[in-house]
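Subject: Sanity check before I submit

Could someone independently write out the structure tokens for this chain? I want to compare against mine line by line before I put it in a report. The sequence has 291 residues.
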Amino acid sequence: MTTRAETVRRAERHELTYGGRRRRFLLLRPEPGPRERPAPLVVDLHPSGLGPAAQLRGSGLGELAAHGYAVAAPQGALPYQGGWAWSLPGVPLAGEERIRDEAAGVDDVAFLAALLDTLDGMLPLDPARRHLSGFSGGARLASHAAVAFGDRLASVACVGGVRRPGGPGDAAPPLLAVHGLRDATNPYRGAADPRWDEPVPDAVARWAGAAGCAAEPVRTESAPGVTEFRHRDAAGREPVRLVAVASLGHAWPGTPDPLLGGHADGSGSDAYDASAAVRGFFGEFGGARAA
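---
Independent answer below. Compare away.
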């Protein structure tokens, strides 16, 4: 069985010049095999302080290449704590009081749009099956991009970082949000911080409203300490979902990787497998099915 690290080592290294900067990204092409139509795409966004290889190892979403997906992982433009960070509209980086001067010329939402265009030129991709995922700062960027991109995305998955920018008339593609009740970096109940002022359930509820879903979610206990809130639409689907994990801090639950798994500080949890959930969600909303 191929390990996550081996999968990442197979990834192609590419560069894209955007906004006067050379931006790097990793690409895993769909593994050869019969397919009836162009491939679905996942763009996986790293957290602040890490990079694309660490994100793919932690999320395990590179494994989707074996199921017919193309998987791309770009790199943020701002150096941060030994890794990289994304420039998010109107807010400073975590732990910083003001927006960096160097961030003023970086529009990472526009960069992601340019990346989608670049990938469309490199591979036969299905424009109706584009998916965006991210952890922490990557999830916050995914939230902004999902609103800005309109119908360019089939779905989005945000682990430890969902936000709801924009208003009720803005785009709201299917959303899977996973968050820990013990998260001290991006607290579940919000914080006195312009970067993270809205409680997670409120952000998801506003997303559901924009998507035309019921305001009151269906609540289930899917496992001990794991509560799912699913907002249904008029067709009976559940395209907006929040998974709250009681034992989880600021980590990607279920990953064996210590960088995303919070093993060092004890904030991780094996109560929920976010990687499997994200793969299943993408398969449900436009992607090829992947176990």
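---
OP: Matches mine. For the report I'm noting this point. The CA atoms of residues 91 and 97 lie 9 Å apart.
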